[in-house]
Design a protein that fits this description.
heterodimer; A: mainly alpha; 11 helices; B: alpha/beta; Rossmann fold; Alpha-Beta Plaits; 7-stranded mixed beta sheet
């Protein structure tokens, strides 16, 4: 790839960062997304652990779950916004008549999601130290970075699923942007270990990378996992699903060009 | 002249209902060739398939069957390469609501790979060209319909497209704004030499802008040619009424260039011609040379609207003609 082509490809990715950033700046609701809900979530669950008189490790188990879900929610919604903003503005056809690749659309939106959700993580970690004495840095910088990377990867997978559903079902699918994360809460052991889930949910949880990333990080707080090579499973599954979703995204885009969904969503 | 569009046997149908059991055929074997640098209009009643055809040609939609070649590139296999060279502007334009005019142009400029200073200059030039100055910081949802339309046209010029698709570019605009938008389209085409394919309901727009026009009806092109040629095709045209004294022979008049029909009633001769203004002098000369004395001449001009009505009626004898 020549340098001008590379520059062109990078600016096309940057376009989606620019779009999401401008809309984030303008929209009061996005402040709620990155400040209000995550902070309210952390404090209400944190106070619940105080009321239940849980020990520090048990509180940590739950707070890891709360903060992780806030990070994922903020990051995945930015990926989903790649199409949702266009859907709401009825401008989707202008994005897809431009010579952009689907990976550029996803990558650009994901980058701004990583930035916003990292801010959320910083904020919640600081609050959790001062309010509940929970130290996110106890495992060290390396494990923390790997854990966050895992969360960001899970986020892109959820956000892409929303985009795929939007291209398939249009407006009917926008609810997925908020509900897919709730499914993760139920299945992946966010507030409890997956061993307490009824059949077949533990088996399903083992197919979701978030389960392994949570178990990996909790292992530094004394919660031994029944699985080996947690990061390998987490990143391996993430890579596999990312590949599948990239192919699926291209396929549904092709399908949308065949069925006229891009036109219908722009009217 | 090289072709900008070559479409052969385009079929498209849409399915609806729970299991897609209802199927509506929208395009039924459309063939189209548009030369580079041409402004080509597609006219037709609602539901004729104009927007569907335009969407297929602009790579937003795949046909069920048929071949599409845009600027010599296969539209079905290499849509990405086509998208680098084309752009689209639609009536009832929609862009990201909370982004301003300038931000929207920068966003789409980035999507077309424009970087740094080049993008800044392009956006500035387009804001000036489309009279958006003073509104560049206004969010899209606060713009008037005319402004939105101008933004849409500005966005469509960001990549200096070789092929521009305009879908009802002046729909919903008041006449004054429509005229200004048409002027902008015409002058942008003159500057860039791009090919333009536009769909419209507006006969005057088609007549004033287009080199050639295709009438699309129920998914088929029923006529294709210049505005004048289409008028000749349906045998309606401008009416020249001449009050006279002396001998006049319709046999002689009808042989004159551009004359579609001639009839005489008393001292009134009614001649139907393709383009009244340009034929008037030669008709008067023919009549004068025949020895008749002309008392009064009047010219009634018809426009494409009458042609459209004729085609929309769909008399079989006039169908399937191309000039």
């Amino acid at each position: 790839m020549s340098s001008s082509n590379l520059q062109r490809a990078l600016i096309q990715i940057w376009a989606f960062v620019f779009k999401n950033w401008i809309i984030t700046k303008r929209n009061v609701f996005t402040l709620f997304e990155i400040l209000f809900w995550p902070v309210v979530g952390l404090f209400s669950v944190g106070l619940l652990t105080v009321f239940l008189q849980l020990d520090a490790d048990m509180s940590g188990f739950i707070l890891i779950g709360v903060i992780s879900m806030s990070v994922i929610q903020v990051c995945q919604i930015d990926v989903a916004y790649a199409l949702l903003y266009d859907l709401w503005s009825k401008s989707i056809k202008h994005t897809f008549i431009a010579p952009v690749h689907s990976f550029q659309l996803i990558l650009g939106s994901w980058l701004i999601g990583v930035f916003r959700s990292f801010l959320v993580f910083l904020l919640l970690s600081i609050f959790s130290v001062f309010a509940f004495g929970f130290d996110f840095l106890r495992p060290g910088i390396g494990p923390l970075v790997l854990f966050l990377l895992g969360l960001f990867l899970v986020s892109v997978l959820i956000g892409m699923s929303v985009c795929i559903l939007v291209l398939l079902f249009g407006y009917k699918a926008e609810v997925a942007a908020w509900s897919l994360v709730s499914l993760m809460v139920l299945i992946c052991g966010v507030y409890y270990p997956i061993s307490i889930l009824p059949f077949p949910l533990p088996e399903i949880a083992q197919a979701i990378p978030l389960t392994f990333f949570l178990e990996y990080f909790r292992s530094f707080y004394g919660f031994e996992s029944g699985y080996r090579n947690l990061l390998g499973w987490g990143f391996g599954l993430s890579g596999l699903y990312l590949l599948i979703e990239m192919v699926a995204f291209k396929a549904v885009l092709h399908h949308a060009r065949r069925t006229g969904v891009l036109i219908k969503l722009s009217e | 002249m090289a072709l900008a569009i070559r479409a052969e046997g385009i079929y498209k149908s849409f399915r609806s209902g729970w299991w897609g059991q209802r199927r509506k055929e929208v395009l039924k074997g459309v063939d189209l060739q548009v030369e580079q640098g041409e402004i080509f209009g597609i006219l037709g009643p609602n539901g004729a398939g104009k927007t569907t055809l335009l969407s297929i040609l602009s790579t937003l939609l795949f046909p069920d069957r048929g071949k599409v070649e845009i600027l010599g590139i296969d539209g079905l296999r290499d849509g990405h390469r086509i998208r680098e060279k084309v752009n689209i502007s639609s009536g009832n334009a929609n862009f990201l609501w909370s982004l301003s005019v300038r931000e929207n142009l920068h966003f789409y400029g980035m999507l077309y790979g424009l970087t740094g200073k080049a993008r800044e200059e392009k956006v500035k030039a387009l804001i000036e060209f489309f009279d958006l100055k003073g509104h560049e910081h206004v969010p899209f949802d606060r713009l008037s319909t005319g402004m939105k339309q101008r933004l849409s046209l500005a966005k469509s010029m960001l990549n200096d497209p070789q092929m521009l698709f305009l879908d009802e570019p002046t729909v919903g605009l008041d006449p004054e704004v429509s005229v200004r938008i048409r002027e902008k389209i015409r002058s942008a085409q003159r500057e860039n030499g791009m090919t333009i394919l536009l769909t419209t309901h507006n006969m005057r727009e088609a007549e004033s802008l287009c080199d050639r026009i295709a009438f699309l009806k129920e998914g088929e092109i029923v006529a294709l040619g210049s505005a004048g040629a289409l008028k000749r095709m349906v045998r309606i045209g401008d009416v020249v009424r001449i009050e006279f004294n002396g001998p006049i022979s319709c046999d002689q008049i009808i042989r004159a260039e551009g004359v579609i029909n001639c009839s005489i009633s008393g001292d009134l001769c009614e001649i139907i011609v393709d383009e009244g203004e340009s034929r008037l002098a030669s008709l008067i000369a023919i009549i004068s040379q025949g020895g008749a004395q002309i008392k009064r001449v009047s010219l009634g001009q018809t426009d494409l609207e009458d042609v459209f009505i004729e085609f929309a009626k769909g008399t079989d004898s006039d169908m399937g003609l191309r000039i």
